[in-house]
């Protein structure tokens, strides 16, 4: 028998299940998504499940179950089932879907922490780390910055200078699978029943870190490329594994771009520490671009606020505003369309 408390099941989830029409059915957590097939961990083992037609065709893509979701399903045959309901999501990590204006893509749900993994080679990118950090804090997920491959030669002082504004807000770890003490420190930061998602670019060693934390090979990894000296991309899906006596780890495929999908562009100011200066601006609605009496611009000019951080804030704010505005317009269109459909149905019913 599997104890789902180890996977994060708690009294709140139990209450949410009781509120469902299907509360008599078996509950479980999605560990892997294979297009239209879902692997679900339950008290009675692992089940291969599919969706009911209502769920498959009645939901948009980002509303469909993802890794980490808690679902209710009807078992049939041996270790097969049909998912009929999904418990309301919390702490869901999204990103803007590539090639769209306002569509979201779900990465994982019921996430407590997110390890933003970068490797200490050409992959190191402060701006990318800021992007992940902003999106996570929007969903009340605790971000952690992990610099992997610390056995490589690198200028630690230079790295720490560039991430000073990040390190003041979130934990930062330097790790290497060849340095057991660094893995131990990372493992000790994960509590029992806690869900941690690993995000970052391809080749930074996310799967290798998961294996090292679990102290056994649970995920496939690739050898180092002889031509580039970097790890080859291995993960092709979001996969959940359980650490012995500790938390749940979710590995994710590497992403080249991570578009913001946040509804509140103003939250950027706090994450990038702009709000510390914005409170002293002459105008309450100051945009920090060219307004007189702008304390943010003054901080940039005097060198107190890093210009690169300020420029990153402006870029991310434009992107977040564009997404939130497009999302708002999309919701208005959907609402108008639904209203029109209801009116047509009423007319047909009255004939």
UniProtKB/TrEMBL annotation:
Gene Ontology cellular component terms for the protein in this record: cytoplasm
Keyword Metal-binding listed: yes
Subcellular location: Cytoplasm
Positions of the EngC GTPase domain: 109-256
Binding site for GTP: 148-151, 200-208
Cofactors named for this entry: Zn(2+)
Binding site for Zn(2+): 281, 286, 288, 294
EC numbers on record: 3.6.1.-
UniProt cross-references to CDD domains, sorted A to Z: YjeQ_EngC
Pfam families to which the protein is assigned, alphabetical: RsgA_GTPase
A GO MF term: rRNA binding
Name of the protein in its database record: Small ribosomal subunit biogenesis GTPase RsgA
């Amino acid at each position: 028998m599997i104890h789902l408390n180890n996977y994060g099941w708690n009294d709140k989830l139990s209450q949410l299940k009781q509120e469902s029409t299907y509360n008599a059915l078996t509950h479980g957590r999605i560990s892997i998504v294979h297009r239209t097939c879902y692997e679900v961990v339950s008290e009675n083992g692992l089940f291969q499940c599919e969706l009911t037609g209502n769920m498959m065709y009645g939901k948009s893509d980002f509303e469909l179950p993802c890794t980490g979701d808690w679902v209710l399903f009807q078992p049939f045959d041996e270790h097969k089932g049909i998912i009929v309901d999904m418990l309301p999501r919390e702490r869901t990590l999204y990103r803007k879907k590539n090639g769209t204006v306002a569509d979201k893509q779900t990465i994982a749900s019921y996430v407590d922490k997110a390890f933003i993994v970068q490797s200490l080679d050409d992959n190191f990118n402060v701006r990318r780390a800021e992007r992940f950090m902003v999106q996570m804090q929007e969903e009340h997920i605790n971000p952690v910055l992990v610099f992997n491959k610390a056995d490589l030669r690198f200028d630690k002082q230079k790295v720490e200078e560039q991430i000073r504004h990040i390190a003041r807000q979130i934990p930062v770890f330097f790790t290497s699978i060849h340095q057991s003490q660094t893995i131990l420190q990372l493992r000790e930061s994960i509590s029992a029943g806690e869900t941690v998602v690993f995000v970052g670019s391809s080749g930074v060693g996310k799967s290798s870190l998961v294996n090292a934390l679990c102290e056994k090979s649970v995920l496939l990894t690739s050898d180092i490329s002889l031509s580039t000296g970097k790890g080859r991309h291995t993960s092709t899906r979001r996969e959940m594994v359980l650490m012995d006596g500790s938390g749940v780890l979710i590995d994710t495929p590497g992403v080249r771009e991570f578009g913001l999908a946040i509804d509140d562009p103003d939250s950027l100011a706090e994450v990038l520490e702009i709000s510390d200066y914005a409170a002293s601006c002459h105008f309450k609605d100051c945009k920090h671009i060219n307004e007189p009496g702008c304390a943010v611009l003054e901080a940039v000019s005097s060198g107190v606020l890093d210009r690169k951080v300020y420029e990153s804030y402006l870029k991310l704010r434009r992107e977040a505003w564009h997404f939130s505005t497009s999302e708002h317009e999309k919701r208005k269109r959907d609402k108008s369309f639904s209203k029109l459909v209801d009116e047509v149905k009423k007319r047909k019913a009255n004939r």
